[in-house]
Input
Amino acid sequence: MRIGEREARDLESLGEPGQVAALLPARTLNHVTLYASSVARSKAFYQRLTGLPIQAEDKDFCEFRLESGFLGIYAPDAGRQPGFNHFCFGIEAYHPQATLSTLKALLPRD
Output
C-alpha cells in the first residue's frame, strides 16, 4: 500500500512536527514466521544460537517461546520457497473492522 502526499500530510498533522501519529500503535513483536527446508536442522540452529525454550513442536514445525510472542519455523507447503515469510506486531486496542476501514481510507483513489 502506498500512502499519497496528502494522506502523509494528514497523518503528520496528528502528531508532533516531523512525526507521524500511529494509526496502529504497535507495542510488541507478536511473532516471526520462517519456512525451513529442514525444520530439525533449523530447530537445532536456533536452539544453539538463542537458547529459547520450545513452546510447541511436531515433525513439520517448531515454535520457540519469546517473552511476548514466538518464533515459528515451519516446513513450507508445496510450491513455497524456504525463507522469511512474515512478522506480526502486537497492536494496542486492536479492532479488525476499524483497522480495515482506516486502511481503506488511506488508499489512493484513482
The mean pLDDT is 84. The longest helix spans residues 39-50. The two ends are 14 Å apart (CA to CA).
